[in-house]
Amino acid sequence: MQKKREHPKVKSQLHPRSKHRERYNFDALIKSSPALTAYVAPNKYGDNSIDFFNPKAVLALNKALLMHHYGIKFWEIPEHYLCPPIPGRADYIHNIADLLKGNGTKIPKGNTIKGLDIGVGASCIYPIIGNHEYGWSFIGSDTNENAIISAKAIEQKNYNLKSNVEIRRQEKSNNFFYEILKPEEKVDFTMCNPPFHASLKDAQKASLKKLKNLKGKRPSKALLNFGGQQSELWTKGGEARFIKDMIYESKHFGEQCLWFTSLISKETTLKPTYKILENVKATAVETVEMGQGQKVSRFIAWTFLSDKEREEWINKRFKS
Fold first, then answer.
1. In degrees, to the nearest 5, what angle opens at C-alpha 55 toward C-alphas 116 and 261?
2. What is the extent of the structural domain holding 276?
3. Distance between CA atoms of residues 57 and 39, nearest Å
């Protein structure tokens, strides 16, 4: 056994309201989800941990986190679908809450606050966290039929989600808001975790690089420990093209949403995105940086409402 490392008590880079700022309490997690027991063992430093290169172990850990922290009773996803890292997903939700709060003192809570999760995925992760933490309701959209079936099962088999989450199939793969948002329907925010890569080859190359950095040697094949389907990992033109198309379409729904948002993985995507937002005459743009471990992530938010219209929106929907 190697000399035990001293770990900080709090992961200060995570959002102050995050439930994941302290190290995993495996005893508590196992109590919430006994199935995790099979994957927990002392690591080389003598600390209880799991093998983060074992997809089944990662899945079991995430299920335990959702049961322990978010009151989920049922959570199953199909094999080879994206198994999201919970702390990072929670940070996106908490930072959206701060965005909605604006300069106010209170975060808007309750199911009258509604979000649209574009690409809800098989895991239904953002509606789970957003509903538990703030009581928000959600529309979750996806183009993948199996993801829709999985997300609907999670929604139907968890009481709080059943009355606060609606899963809608996006039939046209090039659409974001068309066919999903109904005329006159309003949402307070949209969120999206875009496919980051421009091709399957790029996705595999990034995975190999990540694994090599973590393990110190080149692995024999690309093993994505969080899984992922094509639509979840890559798209033609990568995230820059994806977000560009989303922004142009969002212009047509400017009066139906307070804040549009999307994660941006690559810092190089920011500059062209700002230019596009200028072209479509977004009235306000925010870039929110988030930190998970050694990685810095971010999301961009934009609106087409004037300052007065945003104030009226907040007074009508958040303070009623």
1. 20
2. 85-318
3. 6
